[in-house]
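Section 5.1 Outputs to date
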Amino acid sequence: VDPSNEASKAIYTDTKAPTIASDVFVDPNSSTHWNQGNKTVSWTTGKITDEGGLSPNSLTFGFYNGTSWSTLASNEANDGSYTWNVPNLDITNAKLRVAATDVAGNSSSYTLSDEFTIDNTPPTLVFTSPTPGSTVAGTIQITFTGTEITAPQISIDGGAYTAITTGDTLDTTTHSNGTHTLKLKDTDPQGNTGYSEIRTFTVDNTMNAPTIISHKNNDLVSGNGTIIAAAPGDTTKVEFYIDNGSGYAIECTDTTPTDGWTCNTNYNCPGTCTNVKIKATATDTIGNNASIEVT
């Protein structure tokens, strides 16, 4: 029956298939990056038409997984959207296609979407410093590498995540001495979140002061002499300073305490010097230092 002239009762045969414009798909498109889960496939309904202005009876969608096509949905209404449970794949050349069938059973050929990306791989993050189990002091650098790094964040001791860039510094003096943990995370544009391993390290910002054992306050010295100090076992060097009234000046540095921490010096100064000060500063393996002085 001629739909435009009911009264005529004209009978005709519909052999013309629906038509679909090449740009019918709105999403996915060439900029689409989806991960697993429900996503909305959308299209422009007016770009799928049939003879006489009628809407096609049903739509059939297909999915290309990078290797082969499969039917995604059939008998879908031309209503502009369809909810698709995107599979757990990692491909950059995914495509959809759509065909329309009218009430007379005529079917169009398929129209393809742009290629788009399905990405279910989370970012990777790997610490490069501090090293596992290391002992640190003062200000340290936090460095890391990885893939798909876009907006990394760090958690210290299980706390809230905050933004970080590799090479940023951490002032360990704001944290207690002892064991601490770091963990990184990042989320890619598709919503996949990746985490680093938990990096454990120890903060040690304490140093026991050395002891000057060769001199005590109010000693009288002259000529040549040896300053001897005792220092903690993890000491790597002891620096000796003398102040003859014009400020401390370094006298010598001992890094090989085979005979104790020593400094051979000459106490002579112009005329008679009073209140001469001797200071010994010990430094440990991670850079902590502490001093002692006698007058």
